[in-house]
Structure formats: structure tokens, C-alpha cells
Automatic annotation (TrEMBL):
PANTHER family: OXOGLUTARATE/IRON-DEPENDENT DIOXYGENASE. This is Fe2OG dioxygenase domain-containing protein. Pfam families: 2OG-FeII_Oxy (PF03171), DIOX_N (PF14226). GO terms for molecular function: L-ascorbic acid binding; metal ion binding; oxidoreductase activity. Belongs to the iron/ascorbate-dependent oxidoreductase family. The lineage of its organism: Eukaryota, Viridiplantae, Streptophyta, Embryophyta, Tracheophyta. Residues 236-338 form the Fe2OG dioxygenase domain.
Length: 393
């Protein structure tokens, strides 16, 4: 069985510049390039489908019976995603701080999801970011397709994680952009319209980046690690943004807005559009639990990276999105992850006889490539990192 190794920076950097967003640093255009030719077949734009109002949902969107969502949102009161008051972590008194840290620990251990209120990011910035995102999706199709996502890539406008012509599609339009470090950006995919889109996204993403850094400091403390542990280990963290638009669907019981998956990031930060219906569901105790975002809060979830680093103490959680018959839904999602050069594996302090090593040590760039070249399918991509158990002879 492979042993857990100390975390370090890899000397092999050749992968780091062409993964996750599949860009080549030596190309003047920084254009996204598929790993290999991929035939994804015809993909209908769901906003255009909604406009045309077909009598039936196209077959590629209709899920198998076992995958179809349950839309009943009535839940017992205990099934509530924990809420963290960030202001009490930053400037609360001793009792408030202790209480929030316990709540944060419980959220990471038992849920893998939590909501953050009083996060310190100006609400007007959230509003303006939501507005430019919505304005982009409301542009004519030919304008949006100037920034089209190519098959096998994950930046631009369209549907990501589609790798075959018979794969089921999500009832969602996506617009994704690499942010940090700058070499993952594809300039031609950044839009001129709507006005102030790029400027707004830059400011917003800088604020969310600082929030991620601060949250990781407190998460480190819940693990009895140095406050700067993750920041030091991650290096120049990778950050991306994806805007998801879910038009109303005449048969929400047949489709999914987003296929079940866990995130490959360390942390994921979700902002739901104001007035949007609930659509996020998480898998809790083998049941799909709807998450109703608190107004002006961010929904945070633990990604695969933190599950590996904590040796499974904090787990990434499978989640999906469902649609609504009458209302559209907008979400803005930020992914925060280590540098591609970082070697990842369980933190030695979290491995002992009672908690043996569950994951191997690997290069984060290699895992990112693995993640973005596979369709969304629960937590299957995390199999990449697991230590293979040997059957005693």
C-alpha cells in the first residue's frame, strides 16, 4: 500500500500550464484546445429551447428513471445546512468566536457545506455581479457564441463536461472563465458586452479570493494547523468563475439542471441570484436535501482537495441542481484550488493507526486534468486519489 508523503512543490511543471482549462502558454491566442477530437453531437441551447417551447423535452435532456429528481422541498427542521457568521470569527468576543468555530467544525465534518453570512463583501458588488451575469445570458445567441466553449474544454459559453454524442445533457447554460493565475485566462473568451462585465468580475473575484483565504485560515485552525498552512502550501492558488443559467423547464421532473458531482477544488463559493428559486441539492445520508440560500449569504462547500488533505475528516459532498417549471435561476460559482504544481496527499498530522492513509500523493495538475476530462458522475473522479487496498493473502 502506498504511504502518505509530506506535501511539497513538484519540480515537474510541464503539466501545470496546460491543464484544467486546457490552454497552451506558448500560444499567442491562449485558445482552449481539446485533449483529442471529441464528437459531442448536437447540443441544443436551453434558452433557445425555452423560447421555442417544444411540446416535448428533447431526449438528450430526459434522464433515466433512477436519475430523475424529486422536487419535494418539505424537510424536517434538523436538515438545515449550518450557517456561519463570519463577522463573529473575525471580530466576535471570545464566546462568539468559540461558538462559530465549533459550528464551522461541525459543518466541515458532518455536512461538507455551510452558508456564510456577514462575510464583509459589499452587497452592491454582489448585486452588480449578478446583473452583468444575467445581462450576458440575455444577449442574443450569436453574441454569446462568440465566446463558445469548444468540446473537451471548460472555458467559455456552452455546456462543459460533455464527451460523447449520446451523453445526457444538463438543462443549463454555462459561462466559465479562468481567473488566476493569469496564464489560465483566454482573453478572447472575455466579453465586450455587457459593458463593465470584465471590470465587475475582476473586483468581485478579488474579494471572493480574500474570503477563501480567510476561510481556509479558520478551517486550518479547526484542524489544529497553523493559520497560514493552506496559503503556504497552495502557492499561487488557481481560481475560476462559472455562471450558470437555468431557464424554466416545462418538465422539471424529467431533467437535471446540473448532474450530480463533487468539486475538484479546495473550496467552492456559490452566490445565488436574488429571487431565484432554490435549485441546489446535496446528498446527505443518501437523501437529496435542498439548500435554501440565506439572503446575501454565500454557500460554501468542501472540495475533493480538502477531503484528500484531511484524509477524509472533511469530505467533499455530492451535489446537483434541479430546475423550476415557472422561474429561471442564476448562480455564480467560484472555484479555489492549489497551484497546479502542488503535490497533494493527506496531511501527516491527520494520519495515524486509527486513521490510516486513505489517499495517495499526487500532482494537483494531474488531478485537474483527470477531473476536467471526465463527465460529472458523483464522486467518481476522486477514485483517482484513493489508495488501492490490498486483499490479504
Amino acid at each position: 500500500m502506498q504511504s502518505c508523503l509530506s506535501l511539497k512543490l513538484s519540480s515537474k511543471t510541464s503539466l501545470a500550464f496546460s491543464l484544467f482549462f486546457d490552454t497552451f502558454p506558448n500560444s499567442d491566442s491562449m485558445a482552449p484546445v481539446p485533449i483529442s477530437p471529441i464528437n459531442v453531437g448536437h447540443i441544443d441551447d436551453v434558452q433557445e429551447l425555452r423560447k421555442s417551447g417544444p411540446a416535448t423535452i428533447p431526449e438528450r435532456f430526459v434522464r433515466d428513471m433512477t436519475e430523475r429528481p424529486t422536487l419535494d422541498t418539505a424537510l424536517p427542521s434538523p436538515n438545515t445546512v449550518p450557517v456561519i457568521d463570519f463577522s463573529k470569527l473575525v471580530k466576535g468576543n471570545k464566546d462568539e468566536y468559540k461558538s462559530e468555530m465549533l459550528q464551522l467544525t461541525r459543518a466541515c465534518e458532518e455536512w461538507g457545506f455551510f452558508q456564510v453570512i456577514n462575510h464583509g463583501i459589499d452587497l452592491s458588488l454582489l448585486k452588480s455581479t449578478e446583473q452583468v451575469a444575467k445581462d450576458f445570458f440575455m444577449l442574443p445567441l450569436d453574441e454569446k457564441q462568440k465566446h463558445q466553449m469548444l468540446p473537451g474544454t471548460v472555458q467559455g459559453y456552452g455546456q462543459a463536461f460533455v464527451f460523447s454524442e449520446d451523453q445526457k445533457l444538463d438543462w443549463c447554460n454555462m459561462y466559465a472563465l479562468g481567473l488566476e493565475p493569469h496564464f489560465i485566462r483566454v482573453p478572447k473568451l472575455w466579453p465586450i458586452k455587457p459593458l463593465k462585465f470584465s471590470e465587475t468580475v475582476e473586483v468581485y473575484s478579488g474579494e471572493v479570493r480574500k474570503l477563501c483565504q480567510h476561510l481556509l485560515q479558520y478551517i486550518a485552525m479547526t484542524l489544529n494547523l497553523r493559520t497560514d498552512f493552506f496559503e503556504e502550501m497552495f502557492g499561487v492558488a488557481v481560481q475560476a468563475i462559472r455562471m450558470n443559467y437555468y431557464p424554466p423547464c416545462a418538465r422539471p421532473d424529467l431533467v437535471l439542471g446540473l448532474s450530480p458531482h463533487s468539486d475538484g477544488s479546495a473550496l467552492t463559493v456559490l452566490q445565488q441570484g436574488k429571487g431565484s428559486p432554490g435549485g441546489l441539492q446535496i446528498l446527505k445520508d443518501n437523501k437529496w436535501v435542498p439548500v435554501q440560500p440565506v439572503p446575501n449569504a454565500f454557500v460554501i462547500n468542501i472540495g475533493d482537495t480538502l477531503e484528500v488533505l484531511t484524509n477524509g475528516k472533511y469530505k467533499s459532498v455530492e451535489h446537483r441542481a434541479v430546475t423550476d417549471k415557472e422561474k429561471d435561476r442564476l448562480s455564480i460559482v467560484t472555484f479555489y484550488a492549489p497551484s497546479y504544481e502542488t503535490e497533494l496527499g493527506p496531511i501527516p498530522e491527520l494520519v495515524d493507526e486509527n486513521n490510516p492513509c486513505k489517499y495517495r500523493t499526487y500532482n494537483h495538475g494531474e488531478y485537474s486534468k483527470h477531473y476536467v476530462t471526465n463527465k460529472l458522475q458523483g464522486k467518481k473522479t476522486l477514485e483517482f486519489a484513493k489508495v488501492e487496498s490490498k486483499i490479504p493473502t
